[in-house]
Structure formats: structure tokens, C-alpha cells
Specification:
Elements: H1 4-19, E1 22-27, E2 34-38, E3 43-50, H2 63-75, E4 86-91, E5 96-102, H3 115-134, E6 137-138, E7 147-151, E8 157-161, E9 168-169, H4 186-193, H5 202-217, H6 233-242, H7 255-265, H8 276-282
Antiparallel strand pairs: 1-2, 2-3, 3-5, 4-5, 6-9, 7-8
Helix pairs in contact: 3-5, 3-8, 4-6, 5-7
Bound molecules: adenosine-5'-diphosphate (ADP) and magnesium ion (MG).
Length: 292
């Protein structure tokens, strides 16, 4: 029997050959790598997991096969200006589950030094999340990695969301896994610490959007600067629940905007803006693309 690593690689090769996908590169990820390739007509990403979670290629976590199936269900219902298109989804006879998804070409580096560009980016993120909520979907894992800034065919800047593995319809509380804990709202961080069930809601997404923007302004990977001796997940969750944010890494011209973000992030959940539109207004951002 081949070892597990080559088992998975072999299966990826079988799937891409069968579907006529030319492999280009791998995007490494903590939760299982993603393959970028091309079909005859377009650029795609391919996500694979073992339905029985047997394949333990480095980094593939047990939640992956659940996530891939969940994501396929969600993105097939979402408009294409918000999410990539699901082109193909299947379970092969060897028990591998996979999705072929349209590739979204990131057009530029994230605006960090230019506060006006950043505000524009953030308005469009809020617009995309508003449209997604209008479609009845909670994303569940909003963070910089899962937001792609791109340009459409007619050269109009747009913001797309990817990674719907933790998403859920509004009317379902069947959310088995919360997304990245670094972007959890303080109240949800406290729930996780108390081993209570965590279900991401609109108000948590409002927090995650502010945290996403703060992270980009800080030119960092997380909104929170963890204390040096803060190593374990529990210690980090406690720090998130306490919510003390620094402005380290924020350019001078963006400090006042970062201050507004932190003010909103520090509001008790009941006082936090209740909708994406209210968040845009609280940040004095353009709201022309946002319906109430
Ligand atoms: N449709 C897509 N088009 C372009 N890049 C994508 C697409 N989907 C994912 N990516 C890139 O791959 C990375 C990992 O994919 P993602 O769906 O977020 O999986 P993970 O659960 O591993 O985070 C994303 O952060 C993004 O940079
Ligand atoms: Mg992701």
C-alpha cells in the first residue's frame, strides 16, 4: 500500500487527468492545500478531501470533507459577483470528495499605505457581505485570507468572498465548526472558552469585518497582537475575549480610522452596529452600493 501522502497526490493526479485540468501550482493552507489549474476554458481551483478523513496529507484536517461538501451547497446558491462559481462537485469511487471552483484573479496588493484605497476596499467588502446576507447566508469565516480584491471584465473593481466551508443559511444553526478563532467576536471567544456552542451570527460578521480591516491596516496577520507569553489557544481566546487592540503597524494617516474600528470592536455586542449598512455609516464610509 502506498504511503498516505502519495495516496493523496496520486488521487489528485487521477482527478485532474480525468477532468482535463492542467495543474499550475498549489496554494498551501493549514487546512489542506488547494490546487490551481486550468481547464480548456478557464482557470480553476480544486479542493480535495477524503470523505472518511483517511487522507492525512500534511495539514488536511478532519473538518475538511465536511467543509468541502458544505461549501458546495452554499456557493451553488450565491450570486457570482459575491462568490466563485461551483463548476463541478463529486465523490469519486475511492471516497475522495472534491470541488472544482472558478478562480478569482486577485488584481492588486491590498491597499495598506493608502487610506482612501483602503476605505474603498472596505466599502466593497461591506457591500459584498450585505449582498450575501440578503441571499440568506452567514459566511462564518470572514478574514483577510478569504476576501479577494479583483477587477471584473469591464475593469470595475470588485470584492469577492471565498472559503464558504464554515458558512450556513440564516435558518440553520447546524454550524459544526466555527471559523478562524483570531476573528471571533469577544462574546464568541468567551463562549468557546466556556465550552459553549458557538454559532456565527450577523453581529459576529460585523465584528469580523472590522477585525479584517484592522488587520490589513496593521499590515499584520491577526487583528490582535498576542502577548509574548501567550502561546496556547486558550490564552489567545482569553485575550480576544478581553479585547485590547494596539495600533502597531498602522500608518500615521490611518490612525484615526483604525481608532474608529477599535471603538466599534470594543462595543458590547448589543451596542455593535446591527447591519453592514450601520457599520458603514459608523465608519463614515460610502454606502451608495448598499441597500438598507
Ligand atoms: N476561487 C478562488 N480563486 C482564487 N483564489 C482562491 C479561490 N479559493 C481560494 N483561493 C485562495 O486559496 C486560499 C485557501 O483557500 P480557502 O478556500 O480559503 O481554503 P482554506 O479552508 O484552506 O482556508 C484562499 O485564502 C485564497 O487565497
Ligand atoms: Mg480560507
Amino acid at each position: 500500500m502506498p504511503n498516505r501522502l502519495s495516496f493523496t497526490k496520486l488521487q489528485a493526479d487521477t482527478i485532474t487527468t480525468r477532468l482535463g485540468i492542467v495543474q499550475e501550482r498549489v496554494i498551501p493552507s493549514k487546512r489542506g492545500s488547494i490546487l490551481v489549474g486550468t481547464t480548456e476554458t478557464q482557470k480553476i481551483v480544486l479542493k480535495i478531501a477524503d470523505i472518511n478523513n483517511r487522507a492525512t496529507e500534511e495539514g488536511i484536517t478532519p473538518s475538511r470533507s465536511w467543509g468541502i461538501r458544505n461549501e458546495a451547497r452554499i456557493i451553488s446558491k450565491l450570486p457570482n459577483h459575491i462568490a466563485p462559481k461551483l463548476l463541478h462537485h463529486a465523490i469519486d469511487p475511492n471516497g475522495l470528495i472534491y470541488s472544482v471552483i472558478s478562480y478569482i484573479d486577485p488584481c492588486e496588493d491590498r491597499p495598506t499605505a493608502n487610506i482612501n484605497l483602503l476605505k474603498d476596499y472596505f466599502s466593497r467588502l461591506i457591500a459584498a457581505v450585505t449582498d450575501m446576507h440578503k441571499s440568506g447566508i452567514i459566511h462564518g469565516d470572514i478574514q483577510p485570507d478569504n476576501v479577494i480584491f479583483s477587477t471584473s471584465a469591464n475593469n470595475i473593481a470588485k470584492t469577492s468572498l471565498v472559503d464558504f466551508e464554515f458558512s450556513r443559511p440564516f435558518d440553520s444553526v447546524d454550524q459544526t465548526y466555527p471559523g478562524s478563532y483570531h476573528y471571533l467576536s469577544p462574546e464568541n471567544a468567551a463562549r468557546l472558552l466556556n465550552e459553549e456552542k458557538v454559532v456565527t451570527d450577523v453581529r459576529d460578521e460585523i465584528f469580523a469585518m472590522a477585525a479584517t480591516c484592522l488587520t490589513i491596516l496593521k499590515q499584520s496577520i491577526y487583528p490582535m497582537d498576542y502577548a509574548k507569553n501567550t502561546k496556547t489557544r486558550e490564552e489567545r481566546l482569553k485575550q480576544i475575549a478581553d479585547g485590547v487592540y494596539s495600533f502597531d503597524g498602522v500608518e500615521k494617516q490611518s490612525i484615526s480610522f483604525a481608532g474608529k474600528l477599535v471603538q466599534i470592536m470594543n462595543l458590547p455586542d448589543k451596542k455593535r452596529p446591527k447591519t453592514a449598512l450601520a457599520l458603514a455609516e459608523a465608519l463614515s464610509l460610502k454606502t451608495d452600493s448598499l441597500a438598507p
